[in-house]
Amino acid sequence: MRSGLLVKLALLLAVFGILSSGITGYYAFTANRTMLVSAAQGDLLTAARGVNRRLQQAEEEAADDAMLLARLVQVAQVINGQGGSQMQRARDELAQAFAGMLALHPEYLQVRLIGAADNGLELVRVDSSGGLTLRVDGADLQEKGHFPYVFETLALPAGQIYQSAIGINHERAAHDAEGRPGMMVATPLPRSDGQPGGLLVINLDLERLLGQLRADLPKGYQLYMANRWGDFLVHPDPAQTFGFEQGRRILMQDSFAATQPLFERKLNNLALSGLEQPQQAAERVMAFVRQPVGLGNRDDFVVTGLVQPLDAVLESAVPLGQRIIHMVLAFSAIAILLAVVFARALLRPINTLAQAASSFSDTQLQQVLPVERNDEIGVLARNFDRMQRQINSHMASLYDNQRELSYLAHHDSLTGLANRALFFQRLEQLLQLSQRNGAPFAVLFVDLDHFKEVNDLHGHAIGDQVLQIVARRLLHTVRGSDMVARMGGDEYLILLQGNFTDAALAELMNKLRQSIGEAMTVSGQRLEVGASIGYSLYPRDGTTAEQLVNEADHAMYHVKAGMRGGEANSLSCR
Ligand SMILES: Nc1nc2c(ncn2[C@@H]2O[C@H](COP(=O)(O)OP(=O)(O)OP(=O)(O)O)[C@@H](O)[C@H]2O)c(=O)[nH]1
User: Fold this and answer.
1) Are 161 and 85 in a shared domain?
2) What CATH number should be reported for the domain holding residue 515?
3) For this UniProt entry, which segments traverse the membrane (predicted)?
4) Catalytic residue among 127, 490, 541, 553
């Protein structure tokens, strides 16, 4: 029972400790994963903004370069159509400047001066071709007036910048630019009379622009970019890009539904994770940033996205998780140990009380209890201690009452002598003993003579005192080992152990009669009483208590009768 309580309490405390450490560990682990994902989202957003910044920077550089070249005096010469060798020299010098620009900027694919006349005929053109610069001249120069970037730039006021949307370059014989994704930055070139004279165009290579950036991105980052309609411009799988060029629409918002608000201009950026949005970003962490493009008056934007596998983000949580498991196991073991120690310490005083109660109920011996404690156990111990004392006190008075009752049941209340019941009990015991060892003994029956007269003459109270005095005299006359009892009324019985002869008994009876017969003063009254005594001997006169007492009674009766009949001495009778 006690050990059951100990086990239950220890189990309860241990379970509480294990649960506490488990829940704490679980929340620490979860919080760590959330923090890692949140940090990864921040990193992805920063990196996506970096990509956009690089793109914008390239656009601005190209615009600056276009403006720089547009201000060259040779440009004005060519645009204003100054003829002759001067014109040719101006073209050659511009071609050299364009080539220098291309060499300086590997991300430039073409630098051209296109005239407004002759359907937008290219006037000076330098292409990038296989890493080298290649001047295209003469009959290889093409008319570009039908391309939007030409007529839209020509429509702009002087000093403005035109920027095309990002797309595949379909211009034929464009060398490195042909078939590659890119954009064009252009500025109009007015003639000296104010009429549109042409434009200066720089073709930018998107692949080249993003190539270095892609290489700098941390391992596992996937780069996506879409135009304002969502068409993928950049995708880890190149087959997914520029779908619109082949009449297909492969849209970012179809692959990443959560990006839809970016294209609706409701959001500027967005971060998702498979931890918090498992439906939208299963097993991944992703960030998308909307970036305005177009240095001129075009209202355009791209959406750049970076995606990282969730596993890679949470990789560093694994060792922490293992450490947390070890800590939880260690704390659980400590919790179990503490639970057992605590439960034992808590139950020890209760066990002491329980043992004390059990031992008290067995032995009634008062036990040492932890009464000095100031807690509930102390209160219980003090109450139990008080209870022990009360029980002991009640038990003591019960034993006293029991002893008194037993005394009263076996003694005569008037004389204090053994009563008839106790006499017969002792007689039976002696009979059993004597039947075994053959030891003889004698029973004497004493009856006062004419006691009725004492009562009648002096009153019952005096009679009582006479009975008490006779009892004392009988006790004084026999040996201490002999038993004197009152049968009732004025009759006494005496049990004498030993081998008595009739003569010895006659002598004893004589002594008894003399002792009884001595004058006594009771309440100022001088009195004398006599007694008739008969006896029986074991085993001669009987072998049962009844027989022996009856025989002694009969003998006494004969004595008394003899006295009444004038016999001189009853002692002749047995
Ligand atoms: N005072 C007193 N008297 C008692 C008590 N018990 C009995 N007696 C009286 O004792 C007397 C005994 O009666 P008996 O033995 O028949 O009369 P007796 O006068 O002794 O006559 P014999 O024995 O024949 O000599 C009766 O009168 C009883 O009332 C007692 O406890 N106290």
Assistant:
1) yes
2) 3.30.70.270
3) 324-347
4) 490
Query: Is the same domain home to 109 and 149?
Result: yes
Q: Is the ipTM of this complex over 0.85?
A: yes
Atom of ligand 1 nearest to the CA of 463: 1
Centre of ligand 1 to C-alpha 454, Å, is 8
Distance in Å, CA 35 to ligand 1 centroid: 115
CATH of the domain at 98: 3.30.450.20
Both tokens assigned to 86: 């001067």
Cα distances (Å, whole numbers) of residue 131 to 37, 85, 125, 166: 42, 31, 16, 22
Using DSSP bridges, classify how beta strands 181-190 and 222-226 pair: parallel, antiparallel or unpaired.
unpaired
- Note whether 434 and 440 are within 8 A (CB): yes
pTM: 0.60
How many structural domains does the chain have? 3
Looking from the CA of residue 447, the nearest atom of ligand 1 is: 23
Residue 416 and residue 558 in one domain: yes
| Cis amide linkage into residue 539, ω under 30° from 0 | yes
Tell whether 436 and 545 lie within a shared domain.
Answer: yes
Higher pLDDT, 3 or 478: 478
Residue at 400 is within a domain: yes
Q: Is residue 165 part of a domain?
A: yes
**pLDDT tens digits for 196-216?**
999 999 999 988 888 877 888
Going by the DSSP 8-state scheme, the letter that residue 366 receives in this structure is: P
Per the structure, the complete domain to which residue 96 belongs is given by 71-204
Catalytic-residue membership of 490 = yes
Computed on alpha carbons and rounded to an integer, the radius of gyration of the chain in Å comes to 67
Clarify whether residues 368 and 477 are in a common domain.
no
Query: Does position 179 have pLDDT exceeding 90, yes or no?
Result: no
Which residue's alpha carbon is nearest to atom 5 within ligand 1?
Answer: 489
